[in-house]
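Try this one yourself first.
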């Protein structure tokens, strides 16, 4: 019987190939949607796993998490620097690290932060060491630059019309091991350097007073002449930052030093700064700390995390758990998955209907062959088995190939997403996918039974007279 089936399939190889291809494509669509959605949930959850609490200015929770955790630059309102000072001194906080962003180099975001955040959220260095001077930089694992490379920061990105800062440059002294997060594509520099590049926090990390040989104090020489102009620039910056972020211009805000390409273009024209590449990194923050897009916080206990989140959910600040924001995003992804799954199910239903129609016609064309088999003594059950096995093998082969195509498509999508965002998406089959495969095979068995029953019911005399 098996030889007969194989000989029949070889004779009708073209029609069989079409059936396999249709089933494979219909199956691959559903499998790719399932694998991609699951890998996106797992990958994003792993990317946010190191960060327990994010504190920023009142605004969008989703955008705060996307910008601070996933490094998607966007215009954010700035939280007052005093918030970082309070968090750093809070006994409930293990560490609190500022995040400043907006500049880039060769398509990689430049992130200003602290050594504590880097050492606490990464597995260590692949080569080189941690920055200790203002002009030094550390690379994420996916940044394609060598040690010793010079980095000239660009405000925004080339795609958004950003411009390169004229003076400052960083020197690469270290490269981190992979984390599977967007931080693998980041260039990490001291937060004080980001402030100084944008003309902010000049008193942070530098001596506040300078004396000449006569002991005359020049620390604030020309302050009166500069005060009006500085106040004017910072006032414009505050108004512009709040307007870009969608908040009322009447609310106070710190200058938007690093909020993306569109946040403070006019500030960059008139308020350039510079860095001292040999200045030591200072990571103590006081009353002069500039405004910040976000602060990443590591509470000491779960209870402390909930208390801190509640304490900083006020009219001017916003405390969020990244996991809660991702849960809401997953719900949106779930709705999108339902729509795509419905489309896939519809295509699979159309393919199934087409296969039933084709096989019924095919059985009708093989009535003489079936009649001959019955005339030579083949029992009805054998005829049923032959017809059922032929179609079931074709559909089962198509399902298997479809699963492989779906896996390959999901992996390609994951690689493209990782290259763009830095988030590693774990694509792979689980027990849930095995149950799906068994459901598909069960449906294939029912589908193959339709033409087999038609062949089973034919009498030899009627088939031979046809």
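Now uncover the answer:
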């Amino acid at each position: 019987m098996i030889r007969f089936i194989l000989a029949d399939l070889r004779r009708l190889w073209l029609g069989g190939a079409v059936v396999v291809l249709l089933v494979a494509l219909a199956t691959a669509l559903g499998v790719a949607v399932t694998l991609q959605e699951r890998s996106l949930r797992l990958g994003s959850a792993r990317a946010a796993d190191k960060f327990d609490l994010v504190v920023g200015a009142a605004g969008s929770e989703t955008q705060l998490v996307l910008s601070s955790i996933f490094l998607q630059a966007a215009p954010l309102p700035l939280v007052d620097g005093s918030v970082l000072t309070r968090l750093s001194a809070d006994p409930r906080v293990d560490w609190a690290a500022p995040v400043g962003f907006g500049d880039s180099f060769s398509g990689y975001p430049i992130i200003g932060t602290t050594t504590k955040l880097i050492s606490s959220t990464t597995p260590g260095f692949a080569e080189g060491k941690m920055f200790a001077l203002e002009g030094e930089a550390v690379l994420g694992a996916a940044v394609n630059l060598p040690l010793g490379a010079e980095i000239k920061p660009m405000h925004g990105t080339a795609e958004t019309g950003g411009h390169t800062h004229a003076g400052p440059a960083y020197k690469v002294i270290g490269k981190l091991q992979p984390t599977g997060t967007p931080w693998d594509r980041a260039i990490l520099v001291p937060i004080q350097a980001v402030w100084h590049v944008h003309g902010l926090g000049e008193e942070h990390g530098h001596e506040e007073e300078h004396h000449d040989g006569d002991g005359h104090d020049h620390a604030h020489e020309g302050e009166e002449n500069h005060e009006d102009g500085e106040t004017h620039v910072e006032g414009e910056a505050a108004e512009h930052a709040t307007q870009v972020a969608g908040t009322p211009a009447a609310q106070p805000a710190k200058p938007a030093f690093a909020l993306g390409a569109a946040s403070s273009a006019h500030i960059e024209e008139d308020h350039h700064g510079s860095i001292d590449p040999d200045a030591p990194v200072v990571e103590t923050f006081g009353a002069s700390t500039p405004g910040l897009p976000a602060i990443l916080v590591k509470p000491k206990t779960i209870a402390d995390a909930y208390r801190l989140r509640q304490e900083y959910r006020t009219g001017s600040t916003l405390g969020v758990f990244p996991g809660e924001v991702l849960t809401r995003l997953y719900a949106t992804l779930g709705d999108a998955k339902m729509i795509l799954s419905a489309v896939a199910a519809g295509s699979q239903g159309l393919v199934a209907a087409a296969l039933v129609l084709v096989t019924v016609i095919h059985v009708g064309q093989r009535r003489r062959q079936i009649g001959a088999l019955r005339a030579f003594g083949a029992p009805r059950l054998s005829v049923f088995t032959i017809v059922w096995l032929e179609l079931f093998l074709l559909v089962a082969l198509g399902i298997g190939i479809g699963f492989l195509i779906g896996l390959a498509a999901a992996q390609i999508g994951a690689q493209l997403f990782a290259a763009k965002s830095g988030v590693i998406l774990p694509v792979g089959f689980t027990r849930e996918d095995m149950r799906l495969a068994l459901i598909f095979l069960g449906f294939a068995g029912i589908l193959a039974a339709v033409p087999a029953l038609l062949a089973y019911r034919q009498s030899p005399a009627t088939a031979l007279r046809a």
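Discussion: The chain is about 50% helix and 15% strand. Confidence is low (pLDDT under 50) at residues 206-271.
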